[in-house]
Design brief:
This protein folds into two domains: about 180 residues, Rossmann fold, CATH 3.40.50.300; about 80 residues, no CATH class. The protein is about 35% helix and about 25% strand. The protein contains ten helices and eleven strands. By secondary structure, it is of the alpha/beta class.
Length: about 260
């Protein structure tokens, strides 16, 4: 075994040490030390260009860091491939879990379940092959409040319900930790309330790290918040503490972002 144990597994599920990413001399992520406690909802916020998306791309291995380490469940995953990281249980929703627009909600979740069980191309086989995933697919749809949309094509579903379906397909991969990239983007108030409630519900079984611009959502959902600006960690704490921090007000809250 060549895995290096950095922290007790029951303490922090994800940690970065000096995480840095440079693009042709521009430092997008600069010496970021992030620690996400197991079972928490942890938000990553900051103004546009702060490095949030680059940080997510580094964590899920779609980008390789220039320097630093990424530790997941006590294992150094800095050099791992994206698919290997997903198999370890660290999955990014709304990016990996794209839905098929002309398949029903049930069919979309069944495809995701097939992928989890190593049968990625079974969708063109006989119906009996697909049916073995029905019970679990129905459970996942019920978990995200989509039982009434079981036989509805994804393209015909309201936007917020489509986002819930994407969460269901992500949950089909049995992640221990979910990275949610702007889950409320483009939503109206009613859908925001539904997805926020869903995230809170699934956090009982999954650690959540999310990038989110809606500060009302962040304040209501997050246990801990990390503020990035210009690629660096500016501050960290709960919302009540950060909302009073003059550095955060200047860099983020006072910059016209809501």
């Amino acid at each position: 075994m060549d895995e290096e144990i950095i922290l007790p597994a029951d303490d922090f599920i994800l940690e970065t040490q000096g995480l840095t990413k440079e693009f042709a001399g521009f430092v997008a992520v600069n010496d970021v030390n992030l620690r996400v406690r197991r079972g928490s909802i942890h938000a990553l916020i900051g103004p546009n260009g702060a490095g949030k998306t680059t940080c997510f791309n580094l964590l899920t291995k779609f980008l390789s860091p220039s320097r630093g380490k990424i530790i997941y469940n006590g294992r150094d995953i800095t050099a791992e491939q994206p698919a290997d990281v997903a198999r370890l249980g660290l999955v990014r929703s709304f990016q990996i879990s794209a839905v098929f627009p002309h398949l029903t909600a049930l069919e979309n979740v069944r495809v995701a379940l097939q992928r989890q069980h190593g049968s990625s191309f079974d969708f063109w086989r006989s119906k009996t092959v697909l049916d073995r995933f029905n019970a679990r697919a129905h459970e996942l749809l019920a978990d995200v409040g989509l039982s009434e949309f079981t036989r509805t094509a994804a393209v015909e579903m309201p936007y917020g319900r489509k986002r819930a379906l994407e969460i269901a397909t992500t949950m089909a991969l049995e992640p221990e930790m979910m990275l949610l990239d702007e889950p409320m983007a483009g939503m109206g108030h009613e859908d925001i309330d539904k997805i926020a409630a869903l995230i809170k519900r699934i956090s009982a079984k999954h650690t959540i790290l999310m990038v989110e611009h809606n500060l009302s959502v962040v304040s209501n959902l997050s246990d801990i918040i990390t503020v990035l600006t210009r690629g660096r960690v500016l501050a960290e704490g709960d919302y009540a503490t950060l909302s009073k921090d003059p550095r955060v007000k200047e860099a983020y809250l006072g910059a016209g972002h809501a």
